[in-house]
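Good morning,

Attaching, inline, the backbone tokens for the sequence recovery test we're adding to the shared suite. The designed sequence is right after.
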């Protein structure tokens, strides 16, 4: 028998509904991009997909529908380390350090294409941002050392710290939703889940989040990146049978995605619509890599979890 659509609709209603509810104060107060309230809202929103997964589980149990034990259900939604823990550990490490490497490659490729200027001597754009953040205050005596510290934190520490909020999303998107859509076929499931993931960001992206110069058009534009990067995270999830490599990959992106702003020239700053990992260059790079991974290292379709 085909799976009922009730679980999917419940997941989407809870996830999208709560994200808009949590973002409502930002819209009512008109909080600007980069404000503390918007940062807090973004962090809280990241846990709404997990709440959607729990709502599906609770709904199924209350209706007395046949299901699996918690241990089996947790395994199907990716909470365990999968059947091959060694592979999962290797993919965890690959996501941790591979995503920042992708960010660096996207930066280098964008600079090589002339889309922005690199300033590895004076870090002028970074200096400019420091001046704007604290006008009138003296700059650090060694901005170069500060840049080095931030890069080290973004690569070695922040991905692990960011696993917690990233898991809030990944258990929903790649842990539960992607397997739930797998009867559509792997590529259709990747595409649909990526579009849903991108659309879920709308409470923030409609205000220009990630691409301030686009305004509300940032919302559909960000969907393009979410489909590309969602394919990479989907490969990690399906290849390992666990959501944790995808969670650390997501966390690594959040930690290193803005590194381009540290190394750019203030006289020729990057247009993030085209340059960097979340621009068109990065989306194309990630899409090609994802295609190669699915082709060279095939995945085994995950089994959807019952309600």
């Amino acid at each position: 028998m085909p799976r009922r659509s009730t679980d999917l609709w419940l997941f989407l209603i809870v996830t999208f509904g709560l994200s808009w509810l949590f973002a409502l104060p930002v819209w009512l107060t008109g909080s600007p991009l980069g404000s503390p309230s918007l940062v807090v809202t973004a962090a809280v929103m990241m846990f709404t997909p997990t709440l959607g997964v729990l709502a599906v589980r609770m709904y199924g149990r209350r209706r007395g529908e046949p299901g699996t034990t918690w241990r089996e259900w947790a395994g199907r939604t990716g909470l365990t380390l999968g059947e091959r823990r060694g592979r999962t550990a290797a993919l965890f490490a690959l996501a941790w350090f591979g995503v920042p490497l992708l960010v660096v490659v996207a930066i280098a490729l964008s600079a090589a294409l002339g889309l922005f200027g690199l300033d590895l001597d004076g870090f002028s754009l970074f200096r400019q941002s420091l001046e704007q953040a604290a006008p009138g205050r003296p700059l650090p005596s060694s901005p170069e050392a500060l840049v080095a510290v931030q890069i080290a934190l973004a690569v070695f520490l922040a991905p692990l710290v960011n696993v917690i909020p990233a898991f809030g999303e990944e258990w929903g998107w790649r842990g539960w939703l992607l397997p739930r859509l797998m009867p559509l076929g792997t590529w259709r499931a990747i595409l649909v889940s990526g579009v849903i993931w991108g659309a879920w960001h709308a409470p923030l992206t409609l205000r220009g989040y990630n691409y301030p110069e686009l305004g509300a058009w940032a919302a559909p534009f960000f969907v393009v990146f979410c489909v590309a990067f969602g394919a990479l995270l989907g490969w990690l999830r399906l290849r390992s049978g666990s959501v944790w490599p995808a969670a650390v990959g997501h966390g690594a992106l959040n930690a290193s995605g803005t590194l381009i702003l540290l190394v750019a020239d203030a006289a020729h700053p990057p247009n993030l619509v085209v340059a960097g990992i979340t621009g068109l260059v990065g989306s194309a790079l990630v899409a090609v890599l994802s295609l190669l991974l699915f082709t060279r290292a095939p995945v085994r379709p995950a089994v959807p979890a019952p309600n």
